[in-house]
Amino acid sequence: MPHSVIEKPAERSVAAYDVEALRRDFPILNREVHGKPLVYLDNAATSQTPQQVIEVFSDYYSRYNANIHRGLHTLADEATAAFEATRHRVKAFLNAEDARQIIFTRGTTEAINLVAQSWGRSQLSAGDEVLISMLEHHSNIVPWQLLAAERGFTIKVIPVDAHGALDMQAYRELLSERTKLVAVNHVSNALGTINPVKEMAALAHQHGALILVDGAQATPHQQVDVQSIDADFYAFSGHKVYGPTGVGVLYGKQALLEAMPPWQGGGEMIKTVSFDVGTTFAGIPHKFEAGTPAIAEVIALGRALEWMEGVGVEAIGAWEAVLLKHATQAVSGIEGLRILGTAPHKAGVLSFVVEGAHSQDIGLLIDQLGVAIRTGHHCAQPLLHHFGVEATCRASFAAYNTLDEVDTFVAALNRVIGMVR
């Protein structure tokens, strides 16, 4: 009797994945660039937005545009309910314990700065150490450098190997009783490397340190469970998960958030204000949400997460793995092309340089053929310098990309390389 074939969940997801039906949700994918159909492969910078999310803005501004939390009238109630519904959706999306652990920010960058300026300013001093990795985006480097210059603590860097994977043995050796925080990305925006953040969190906690995870590049591609990771802080951005720009999320463990001082002052984050006895502050999450927030953007973020969950986050990740494998195999035969980032665990990012061709020239010329990729240092200059380059070309994939688009990209890349060499 022949053995039965048992499909893995990822294989079943890919088999049932209807990318053409999904693409109909994205009106921008119908446009042309320089007379060519748009092939958008700059998703690690910003993903495109489905019509269902776009419609949130028209609905909000035409039906219930009002400030939240403070008003007693109907529009304020409706806006508040929609805003807070997103908080509960994010709680579920990250598997947080409590919706109060979800802080709305302008993006991952502001979320990291909030932790640095609130927790870091109150907890870090000379003699302490913060570990960050060579893989970090500038938004998870510069805030700590600014604070270190003021507070006197030391920043130490976790190295990477030749494949762009973190050197975990070096990480273990860097950890000590002086380590107060590990700040690391879940997925590298420049290389696509997926870091073992759950293991890193466990090791950090063994030394009494906290861990902050930059999840901007992870949440678009995989299911994130902050409780399973045991992250102390986790941040992501709306515009990476098919939502709007200008909105993001900071998750923090409740005890930490409650103990942290406010970062910004103003309306909404107070309990009482007095010239005589000073100000007392609201509880979490409002203590960290001073002023009028990006109300429509937050509501739209909730709709974007709903869209992702409707497609299936794991299904999206499985499809992107197919695209990445196809693209990697296709470009590997191009003479003089070098892929940066060949770690065994990767998200849908393909970063490369071509001998004898400047990355900027490739980016400009391939755009003339309708293909949008990213060129430059990707806000990861220390990492690129480590690999001996100033810039790379980066193609990054999302839920709506197709195998035909990958083939179009590779054909355009071959044509452009022939022009610039």
Features:
alpha/beta, Aspartate Aminotransferase, domain 1, 7-stranded mixed beta sheet, 4-stranded antiparallel beta sheet, 15 helices, 17 strands, globular, disordered N terminus, PyrdxlP-dep_Trfase_small, transferase, Cysteine_dSase, Probable cysteine desulfurase, pyridoxal phosphate
Query: How many helix segments?
Result: 15
Please give the radius of gyration in angstroms. Answer: 22 Å
Q: What is the CATH domain class of the largest domain?
A: Alpha Beta
Shape: globular
Gap between N and C termini, in Å? Answer: 58 Å
| Largest sheet composition | 7 strands, mixed
Organism: Vreelandella lutescens
Pfam family, one: Aminotran_5
Domain Aminotransferase class V: 39-409
InterPro entries: Aminotrans_V_dom, Cys_dSase_SufS, Cysteine_dSase, PyrdxlP-dep_Trfase, PyrdxlP-dep_Trfase_major, PyrdxlP-dep_Trfase_small
Summary, kept brief:
With 421 residues, the protein is an alpha/beta fold. It has helices at 9-15, 19-23, 51-63, 74-94, 108-123, 142-151, 168-174, 197-206, 226-229, 254-259, 295-311, 313-331, 359-367, 381-386, 403-420; strands spanning 32-33, 36-37, 39-40, 102-105, 129-133, 154-158, 179-185, 210-214, 233-237, 248-252, 270-274, 278-281, 337-340, 349-354, 371-372, 374-376, 392-396. Helix 1 (9-15) crosses helix 12 (313-331) and helix 5 runs parallel beside helix 6.
